[in-house]
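Form 7-S
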Amino acid sequence: MRKISLAVLLLLPLQLNADGLPDLGDVSQTMVSPQMERQIGEQSMFRIRADDSYLDDPEITDYLNALGARLVANSSEPSQPFEFFVTNDNAVNAFALPGGFIGVNTGLILLAQNESELASVLSHEISHVTQHHLARMVSGQKYDSLAAMATMAVAILAARNNPQAASAAIVGAQGGMMQRQLDFTREHEKEADRIGLGILEKSGFDTRGMPAFFERMQRSTQLLEGDTPTYLRTHPLTTERVADVDGRVQQIPFKLVPDSLEFQLMRARVHALQKTPRDAVAFFNGALGEQRFGNPIAQRYGLVVSLMRDKQNALAIQEFQTLYKNAPHNASIETLAGQIKYLDKKDKDATAFYRKALKQFPRHRALVYDYAELMLQEKQYVDALKLLDYEVLLNGNDPKLYELQARAYGPLGRHQEEHHVLSYYQILHGNLRGAIEQLELAKRAGNDYYQLSTIETELKQYREIIEAQRSKKK
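Output:
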């Protein structure tokens, strides 16, 4: 049994504060190190994954990470690890957390009219990370631990929809000084614009996407009832800033950049997932019927996804046949093809299909999940574990893989391993007590010496964290 590759395990020897965050001593007059930033980001992500707004959709997330990786490769810190994730929220917002974690709301994805606009937002957020703006906000201040920085990260997250609640959280924890530091300064924003624009150009996107998106956000304020888009609240947009970006763009040669099909597909997917199934079907039928705007391949993709959500399987199969004839070879289309094969009870070669598809797109997580699900449904538990064990070796921080593993271990009677991997699933969602409960069950479920040794070690470490939290609260 391999040990989980988690940053949280790296934190265990450290003294923890009452919030379960690392207490590294007096950090005043010092820079917050990249390792510290990453640790705070990891801790924040445990909370984010447990939140209902976290959109655990591998298709959209993989696209966002592929787009982000293309931009990061042209940043000043191409080796810096980044993780991009999606929140199911209509508010137009994106935000950077310490250590390279960048969140994007579905509302922002839908507001972006082309891929260069979306890339401009990501390049701006990447620049906040590579310039260490969050760390620079707290370094030099008189704080006795990194709790201040963690509070800021949580506050920025809370500010997506409720800036009043975020301000209250800051005042309660650190006082008015932290409230004044919640928003990036004008200098930070201008620096992120300037550097982000360079990343955008080097990555081959249309730099006009940045000022165009700024202008669209400003116009969208008129459509909202007496409020401002969240992105403009957490990233203040001044006339001077817009003019500065526009002036820089005018000096860059014009470059027409077409959108990738994947961008169009994922925007359609967001529409399909955000609307009710019936409304989504009507939306895409209307778009295909008018044939006035949008990409018909993406629209039909959205229609198939919507029909499947609405349990109109026969129509979904029919519409997918039309889609498959006209769509180019694509990982997302292949994933949908596998799901259609599973729906079509007459199709008996689903297993062979997935084997072939994964050879072509081995890192497409949606294909991996669906293939594992298919094997579990067909009671091919040993084969499912072979696939999942390999995937865990590649990405030990994916909670979905552990949940799938547990579903394979259980029917095989391997309950010690079942509960052990469920403890990893719980810890990745920030549920320390749930992880301890699963480890206790694992301890009683088997007698494998090596596993028991690991279980005992992890139980000791997790209990030390709980005890440290209790001590701090007294």
